[in-house]
Amino acid sequence: MAISLEDSTWSERKGRKLQRHLISAVLDTADELVVVLDPEGRIEMVNPAGEEALGYCLEELRGRAIWDTLVPGAEMARAEQDFSSLRTQDTPGNYRWVWRTKEGANRLISWKTTAVFDSSGIAEWIIGVGVDITDQKQTEVDLQKSIKELADIKFALDESSIVAITDQSGIIKYVNDKFCEISKYSREELLGQDHRIINSAHHPKEFIRELWTTISNGKVWKGEIKNRAKDGSFYWVDTTIVPFLNERGKPYQYVAIRNDITERKRAEELLREQAALLNIAQDAILVRDLEDRVLFWNKGAERIYGWSAEEVLGRNICDILYKTSAARYQEAKHALMEHEEWQGEVEHTAKSGELIVAQARWTLLRNDEGQPKSMLVINTDITERRKIESQFLRAQRMESIGTLAGGIAHDFNNLLSPILMAIRILQERFPDEDSQRLFGLLQASAERGAGLVKQVLSFAKGAEGQRIMLQPRHLIKEIVKILKDTLPKQIDVDYDAPSDLWLVAGDATQLHQVLMNLCVNARDAMTQGGRLTIRAENTRIDTNYARMNLDAKPGAYVMVTIQDNGAGIPPGVIDKIFEPFFTTKEHGKGTGLGLSTALGIIKGHGGFITCYSEIARGTQFRVYIPAFESVQPGQAEETQLSCPLGRGELVLVVDDEAAIREITKTTLESCGYRALTAADGTEAIAIYAQHKDDVAVVLTDMMMPYMDGPATIRALQKLNPQVKIIASSGLTENTRVAEATNAGVRTFLPKPYTAEMLLRALAEILSQH
What is the DSSP string of 616-639? Predict the structure, then answer.
C-alpha cells in the first residue's frame, strides 16, 4: 500500500515524540549526571540527578557556559583542552573533571562524553554522562595513606620486632618468632586465638576503646601497651597497629608491630620511686637541661617557691626564679660549665613575689658519651636564717658602735673639761663687755658639746644612775601634762595608765628622757596634726614571744606604748633608726642620738624597744621595762597553768612571716589545738574553702602583701558569714583594724604576742555564740 507524504510526516513526528518521551523518562530516573552542552560549552540540559548533585536547577544553568559556572579556575585550562579535542572526535571519551557546586564544594566527577555531529561533520551537541566519585577518591587516598604508613615503618621489621596479624574481629592470623618468644606461647597456641589472650587488664576501658575506634576507622594507632605472658609475667611493648583496607575503605586485617620496652619501663619505675624519695626531702631539688628548661621539680621546690610541677615543667628557669637576678644566674652557670660543680647563695623570686634566699648546690650531669646533658640543682631555703643572722649582725654592729662612741665620748670629755675651766678663768681676767659676750658663747657651745657627750655615753653604756623603785603611772602622767602644755593644739594627747601597774627599778630622769624622746619624734611625724596615744600595761613575756624578738627575755614587764598616726617610717629606714647619728630630719633639727640614747637607756635597765610602722598610717614604739610582779611566785605559776587549753579545735593561722606562722602553730599544737597555716590571704581562702566545716577560728595578720587582712576577712565572710576571726596587728588602732571592726571582728591580738595572750584570745572568741 502506498503511503502518502503527509502520512509519512505524521508517522515520523509521532515516532520522534515517543522517542523524546522515552529519553526524558530515562534521564529523569537515571542515577548518573547527564549534561548536554552546545559546541561553545553552554549548558542546554541537565537531568534531575545533575541538579541534585550540583545544587542548581536547570533554569539557573541553561545558556551559561560551564567555564563561568561549574569549572574551578585551577581546572580551567585542562577542561578547555579536553573539550576542544572532544568536539573533533567521533568516538566517546572518558574524562575526570572537578566541578564546583552551588555551595562552593568541589566534586570529582568521572565523565563519559560523546559528540553529536550534523551531516557536514560539525559537532552539534556534546552529551556527558557522569558519576560523582569524590568519596571513592577519598577512600583511595586513605588506602594509599595506610600503605604509605606501613612502608614508613618497615624499617622496624628487623630481628627485634614483634609482629602479629589479626583479622577485623581480632583473631590472630600470624605471629613471628619474636612474638612467641616474648609471650612464651607457641605459634600453634596463638593462631586462631582472640588477641585478648595476652591482655594484662592493666589499661582502662577508655584506652582500649580509643585504640579500636582509631584502627576501625582506618587510621594507624601508636602507643605503649602492657601485656601478660603465658607464665603470668608482664612485659611492655611500644606498638604500631596498621589497618589494611578493602576496596570499600574498610579494614579487613591489622598488622601490629611491637618493640620490647620492658627494661625502659622498669627504669622509669625506678626513677619514679627515686623521685618519690626526692619529694620527701625538705630542700628544693630540680633538674634542668642545657637550654635552662625545667625537667624535674620535687615537692620541696613546690613548697618553697609556690609553683607546682605542672606549672614549671618545660619552662625556662630564668622566667620562674631569676626574674631579678638573671646576671647572677648566668655567672653561676658559666662557672658550672667550667668546673662541673658550683655552690653559692642565690636570690630567687617565689610565685607570690616573695624573695627567697637559697644555698644552692649545682652539679653538671653527663650522658654515656661524656657530653653535658643536664644540671642537678639542690636549693636549701635559708631566708629565715639570714634574717636571724641579720638581727645578730645588727646587734653586734650596735654594740661595736656603742663601744666606739663610748671611747670617743670619753676623749671629748677630756677635751671639753679644760676648755670649760679655762673659760671661767678668762672671764675673771677680761671683765669687759665684749670679752664676756664671747666667753658666754664659748661656754654655751662647750656645755652643749658636754650634753651631747652625755647622750653618747648613755647610748654606749646604758643607763648609769641611781635606781629606785618607781611607779610608771606617775611618770606617764607627768609627761602627759608637759605634752599638753607644749605640743601644738592640732595634736590630741590620749593616755591610759592603770593604777595597778607593776613597779619597776630605774632612774626616773633617764626613763623620763626615753619617753619624751619618743613623744617628740611622734610630734615631728604629725606635721598636719593627729593623735598621740600613750598606754601602759602589765605583761608577761614567755619563750614563745622571746623567739619572735631576739632582745626579749622571758619575764614580767611594764609595756609602755607610744603611738602616732603620722607619716610612718619607710621599710628601708626602719632597721637604721636606732643607729647613732642617723636621722631623717633636716640639718640642724636633730642629732640622730635620740632613739639610740633611748635604746641604750632601756637596755641598761634590762629591757628592750620594738617599733612597728606603716607608711601614711603611723608608728608605734613599745618600751618594755622589767617589772616586779605584785603576786607571789606560786601565784605566777598558777596563773601560767590556768591558761585555757584547746580541745582539738582547728585554727587557721594567716601571716606572711614564716617564723610567726611556725611558732604560733607549734604553740597551738602543744596546747591542745590543731593548726593550719597560710602565707597570705589568697592561700588562706583556698585552705579555708577546703576545711570550712572544720576550722573553728581564723587568726589573720592585718598587713600582708597581695591580699591584706581586711580583704581576707571580707572574703572569708563571703564563704561563711559566721566565721570567727582574730585580727593580729602591730598597730591596734590603725585604719585597717578599723576596717576589720566594721566587718564585725571584735577580737585583736597585738604583735608580737605571748602564748598566754594567744590562748586567752582563742578562749574568748570560742566562748562567743
Answer: TTEEEEEEEEEEE-SS-HHHHHHH
The reported pLDDT for the residue numbered 586 is: 55
SS3 388: helix
Give the pLDDT of residue 145: 54
Judge whether 663 and 675 are in contact, CB under 8 Å: no
Query: What region does 729 belong to: left with phi over 0, alpha with psi -120 to 50, or beta?
Result: beta
User: Could you tell me whether strands 530-541 and 491-496 are parallel, antiparallel, or unpaired per DSSP bridges?
Assistant: parallel
| Strand, helix or coil for residue 678 | strand
**Cell numbers standing for residue 340:** 662541673
Crossing angle of helices 508-525 and 594-604, in 10° steps, is 150
Query: Per-residue pLDDT tens for 22-47?
Result: 666 666 777 788 888 888 888 888 88
Question: In sequence order, which ranges of 591-695 are alpha helices (DSSP H)?
Answer: 594-604, 633-641, 658-670, 681-690
| Cell output for 85 | 579535542
Long-range interactions of 476-480: CB distance < 8 A, separation 24+: 476/515, 476/534, 476/536, 476/560, 478/512, 479/512, 479/515, 479/516, 479/519, 479/534, 480/534
Strands 251-260 and 162-167, by their bridges, are antiparallel
Spatial separation of the C-alpha atoms in residues 44 and 38, rounded to whole Å: 7
In this structure, which amino acid lies at residue 127? I
For residue 210, the 8-state DSSP code is H
Three-state DSSP state, 368: coil
Which amino acid, 541? I
C-beta of residue 497 within 8 angstroms of C-beta of residue 473: yes
Residue given cell 596587728 in the structure block: 729
C-alpha to C-alpha distances, 479 to 350, 427, 508, 519, 756, nearest whole angstrom: 48, 38, 12, 9, 31
Three-state SS sequence of 474-487? HHHHHHHHHHHHHC
Which segments of 691-741 are extended strands (E)?
695-701, 725-729
Beta strands in 281-423, from DSSP E residues, in sequence order: 284-289, 294-297, 341-349, 355-366, 372-381
End-to-end CA distance of the chain: 128
Cell numbers 591580738 label which residue? Answer: 749
User: What is the rounded distance in angstroms from the CA atom of residue 531 to the CA atom of residue 511?
Assistant: 22
Low pLDDT (below 70) residues in the chain: 1-27, 89-92, 135-160, 247, 271-281, 388-418, 420-421, 424, 448, 450-466, 548, 580-594, 630-643, 730-740, 752, 754, 769
Cell of 89: 572526535
For 235, the enclosing helix (H) or strand (E) is strand 234-245
Are 144 and 129 in contact by the 8 Å Cβ rule? The answer is no
Q: Which three cell numbers stand for residue 56?
A: 542548581
Question: What is the number of helices (H) and of strands (E) in the chain?
Answer: 27, 27
CA distance 417 to 256: 106
Would you call 268 helix, strand, or coil by DSSP?
Answer: helix
- What is the phi/psi pair of residue 325, to 5°? -140, 45
Among all chains, which residue has been given the C-alpha cell 582539738? 648
Helix H or strand E segment including 245: strand 234-245
CA 604 to chain centre: 48
Query: Does residue 488 have a cis bond before it (omega within 30 degrees)?
Result: no
pTM for the whole structure: 0.38
- Torsion-angle region of residue 405: left (phi > 0), alpha (psi -120 to 50) or beta? alpha
Tell me, what DSSP letter sits at residue 74?
A: G
Q: What is the pLDDT of residue 386?
A: 75
